[in-house]
Design a protein that fits this description.
5-stranded antiparallel β-sheet, 43 strands, about 20% helix, about 20% strand
């Protein structure tokens, strides 16, 4: 920019227009750095004056100045000047010369200056404060709009990605796009006020070319029939031929199209025509076209067995286990029925997959399969070595894996139930597969860490439509004649005083006489409202956002947890300090919400018999039953042989005197942080680990260490949660299908501590002796160490390795061989012979076909794990300890299972730092309304006990149907 021109880069004035000195306000208006030699034309200066005058009026009238349009910042102008330093010096000189000296200032002038400053502060100060609030509100509104726009853009981008994926799939799929016919189905969605709300939904019918289910009929072969015959072996494609003569009822002399004749059993022949009046049932022996993305398309047929019928979930295709080990989905038109099969079809398949198919058909329709998400990494067997493979795509029961730690790129579609997948293989070779069925006290580690995990699938149940009566996992709040209402605060309770400017101290709350020991019958969140606080929800009309505001006994308004905690700290006096968990700033939580039931159905007033701070009533409106008698305990007990050392001398304590606010200085907090540091990929945000305002919003798998009796901090410390008395209002009630359950009588905010699970600590051997009697009922394993070891085990295996390209197809590491690294080799003579057979077959197949190579559905090796749990070194004889609440326990023993839980389990260490003996505690997974049943995931392994089935009645949308 030239020094002798208008500072407005977009100035429209004539070149010789008179210029004026540009003041700082003018330079700021045009986003130009101020210098004394800046100049501006009259027209541009007039624009600036008008704008500043308008801003001044808005400021004076208490209106937000950010609503005004501000000129766009000038870009693209690079100013180069050798005189910058001189000008700067000149500016400095001017400033120094014009700056008034204060050395010999007249006292009257100084007094006048002070008076002016006071007047300005009293008059203009409130306007500035008002303007700050308006600007903050304006910026929040803009931010909210940007968030909405950003979400819309993300949604559009996601829809675009899905559309591109569908387009790509349609471009590269082998068969023509199928058009489904849809049948209209009428269903009852809801019932309200005895009026059924009827809606219709479209369910896909069978596509053209796919027959209905029915009895499959094989017609007799006769001379002259065209058939497909097995010319070479089961691994090779079947060739077209003609029946020349009949040797017997089951053997036929056929002639292939190239003139070669051969006598074949009818099990080695397949019908040529596709006419079928029924679908092929699971277990049928068929030949089908095999098509591979990596090879050129071919019309050749290979033999296999039907493993999955056509369903809506698999796009109405059959899943086929081919004899060569591959698995693929095939449409009905590309399948031909084999003319005959054995009573046990597994006897007809190749020996490589015989045991696998036999077991599959025996358990069908229940199938253990690995649950995958895209981009997950799983250990997978390839060429007798375990490799890392990344999930590329999913197709119903198949997963496409890209192997990472090999030098040549290899991608393969695999059945999700194949024991070539690490999770399936580990489960099949687990030494205690049928022994330990009681759930871990933690949720499944693989689910929590977004790893692949095994899920039992039932094909017949997958096709059932949702039962609308069970479409919600939360209990009906009106069940058992209960009703939710809002309690009223007694009129004689203290009310906030009119606010007067003051510095808060303990006098602000001293007059309300707060005493927590008197709150036994109050909902925990309503306690402050009985002692001088009020809670209101305000709505910002501009932002359309709701905000909770507490008014304190001294009249001050507080709108967030940090301010409230500081207030409670300032106003505390002795042991009467309120704790931050008595307050909640979530608009969706109602502190006055209370679930009540008819007194006539209260069977027991307090099942704890006043051992808990809060009474726990027992309600039953279904019959006259009461819970079996137990010895109610509030502390865990030990059985003979359990050495639980709770001497305070053997635990670490902190020296904090600030309620452990500074987590970096508190040694107990640092113990909690120490475990997650070993897993940076899992615990990415260390500031979000552990308690926040005495609530836990995310499970800490490596355990939480609370302050204890050896610590110098007060009982109101922020790191003391689970050790406090029961605060939640709970009720034991009888459900219709699940026995006794527990529900909350008041709203529970997300992350709140609910209660602990208490029982008698027993050794693993002692608990297993009673296993045949109760098979795990009321037992919870203290498997903290094993859980953490499970995280560590294979931790690096789930990290995506860099992909390398090479022309050689070899494993990247010699120490990753199939047997030595994971387990001990057994029955090697049989395995070696089978591997040699497969290698020979593969070589032969490659020479003949050149394309269709041998794969494997399952691996033949039988391996036993050689890994030894750390517990075996700590306590060789006892192993895992177990909490047994069968005879002695607390309210925690009555929580039911749900596949969609609303509470979760957390291991906490308080009275001992022995990692074998954590406290088992429940926390709210989400906001829980009053009247809702509290449920958690038992994490039982479905199908782990032979001849034992336990159906699940949780009623959630994600219900698996079976608990065991």
């Amino acid at each position: 920019m030239c020094d002798h021109q208008c500072i407005n880069d977009n100035c429209q004035s004539k070149p010789k227009q008179k210029l004026f000195v540009a003041q700082k306000s003018v330079c700021s208006y045009y986003n130009v750095k101020y210098r004394t030699d800046r100049q501006v034309c009259g027209a541009c200066m007039q624009k600036c004056i008008i704008y500043l005058d308008r801003i001044g009026r808005r400021f004076k009238n208490g209106e937000c100045i950010l609503d005004e349009k501000y000129p766009k910042k000038q870009t693209g102008v690079i100013e180069l000047s050798d005189s910058d330093d001189d000008n700067s010096a000149s500016d400095s000189a001017v400033n120094n010369d014009t700056k008034p000296s204060t050395e010999d200032l007249n006292p009257q002038i100084a007094k006048l200056s002070t008076s002016l400053n006071t007047i300005l502060k009293d008059t203009v100060g409130p306007l500035f404060k008002k303007q700050e609030e308006l600007c903050e509100s304006y910026l929040i509104s803009k931010k909210a709009k940007l968030v909405v726009v950003n979400e819309q853009l993300n949604k559009i981008a996601e829809e675009t990605d899905q559309a591109i994926a569908r387009l790509y799939k349609n471009l590269y799929k082998f068969d023509n796009q199928r058009k489904f016919k849809f049948d209209e189905e009428v269903s009852i969605d809801d019932i309200a006020d005895d009026v059924a709300i009827v809606s219709t939904k479209l369910l896909p019918g069978l596509p053209d070319g796919l027959p209905e289910e029915g009895k499959l009929i094989r017609h007799l072969l006769k001379v002259g029939d065209r058939v497909y015959g097995m010319k070479h072996s089961q691994m090779q494609p079947w060739i077209e031929a003609t029946i020349k003569s009949s040797v017997s009822d089951t053997y036929f002399n056929i002639i292939f199209d190239d003139g070669e004749e051969k006598v074949l059993n009818y099990k080695n022949l397949a019908y040529m025509d596709t006419a079928s009046h029924a679908q092929y049932p699971v277990g049928s022996r068929v030949i089908a076209k095999f098509q591979d993305m990596n090879i050129e398309l071919t019309d050749k047929f290979y033999v296999g067995v039907i493993a999955e019928p056509p369903k809506y979930l698999n796009n109405f295709r059959y899943m086929i286990f081919f004899d060569d080990g591959y698995t693929q989905y095939v449409y009905h038109k590309n399948i031909r029925l084999v003319c005959g099969e054995s009573p046990n079809v597994s006897d007809d398949v190749h020996e490589n997959i015989r045991e696998f198919v036999k077991m599959y058909l025996h358990k069908y329709p229940e199938r253990p399969m690995v649950k995958f998400n895209k981009k997950q990494v799983v250990r997978t067997e390839l060429n007798n070595s375990w490799c890392s493979a990344k999930v590329k795509n999913l197709d119903a029961s198949l997963v496409q894996l890209k192997f990472l730690d090999i030098k040549v790129e290899h991608t393969e579609w695999m059945y999700r139930g194949s024991n070539r997948l690490g999770p399936i293989y580990n489960k099949l070779n687990s030494n205690n597969q049928d022994k330990r069925v009681r759930g871990t006290v933690l949720t499944d580690v693989n689910k929590l860490l977004n790893r692949p995990y095994i899920e039992l699938e039932n094909l017949t149940e997958n096709e059932k439509s949702y039962n609308n009566d069970n479409s919600d996992n939360t209990q009906n709040l009106q069940e058992n004649n209960g009703v939710t209402k809002s309690i009223e605060i007694p009129v004689n309770c203290p009310k906030p005083l009119p606010y007067k400017h003051h510095e808060c101290s303990h006098f602000c709350m001293l007059w309300v006489h707060y005493d927590y020991s008197q709150t036994k019958y109050m909902n925990v969140l309503s306690i402050p409202l009985h002692y001088g606080f009020t809670r209101s929800v305000s709505t910002d009309e501009k932002l359309k956002l709701k905000k909770v505001i507490y008014t304190t006994p001294c009249g001050r308004n507080i709108d967030n947890e940090n301010k409230m905690y500081n207030y409670l700290k300032l106003t505390s006096y002795g042991n009467s300090q309120m704790t931050i968990d008595l307050f909640n700033f979530d608009c969706l939580v109602n502190p006055l919400s209370s679930f009540s039931v008819p007194e006539a159905f209260i069977r027991i007033e307090d099942i704890s018999y006043e051992m808990e701070f809060k009474s726990i009533s027992v309600f039953n409106s279904l019959n006259d039953l009461v819970p079996d008698h137990i010895k109610y305990i509030t502390e865990r007990k030990t059985s003979p042989g359990v050495n639980l050392n709770i001497d305070p001398k053997f635990v670490c304590g902190c020296d904090c005197i600030d309620n452990c606010e500074d987590k970096n200085k508190c040694s107990c907090w640092q113990l909690t942080y120490e475990g997650p540091k070993n897993y940076p990929a899992i615990f990415k945000d260390h500031d979000d680990i552990g308690y926040s305002s005495k609530r836990l919003h995310k499970q800490v798998i490596t355990g939480i260490f609370e302050c204890n009796t050896s610590c110098k901090c007060e009982k109101t410390c922020l790191n003391r949660v689970v050790q406090e008395p029961l605060k939640t209002s709970l009720q034991l009630f009888l459900t219709e299908k699940k026995g006794w359950g527990v529900r909350t009588l008041a709203d529970i905010p997300k992350g709140s501590f609910v209660c602990t699970y208490l029982g008698v600590v027993r050794t693993e051997k002692d608990a297993d002796n009673d296993f045949s009697l109760n098979w795990g009922e009321y037992l919870a394993d203290l498997d903290f160490l094993e859980t953490v070891e499970e995280i560590k085990d294979g931790y690096e295996s789930y990290v995506v390795q860099p992909e390398v390209e090479s022309e050689d197809y070899t494993s990247s590491s010699d120490d990753e061989e199939f047997n030595p690294s994971w387990a001990i080799k057994s029955k090697m003579s049989m395995c070696e012979s089978r591997m040699l057979l497969r290698k020979n077959l593969q070589d032969t197949n490659t020479k003949i076909d050149g394309k269709h190579e041998l794969s494997k559905l399952n691996t033949q090796q039988k391996i036993e794990s050689k890994n030894t749990s750390l517990l075996r070194y700590l306590d060789k004889d006892c192993g895992i300890y177990t909490l047994d609440a069968k005879v002695s326990g607390n309210i925690g023993r009555y929580f039911n299972h749900s596949c969609d839980p609303n509470i979760f389990i957390q291991n906490v260490f308080i009275d001992t730092h022995d990692l074998r003996f954590p406290w088992v505690s429940y926390f709210a997974l989400s906001n829980i309304p009053a009247g809702t049943e509290l449920v958690w995931d038992y994490n039982y392994i479905v199908g782990s006990v032979k001849n034992k089935k336990l159906m699940c009645h949780c009623g959630s949308k994600n219900c698996k149907g079976r608990l065991l």
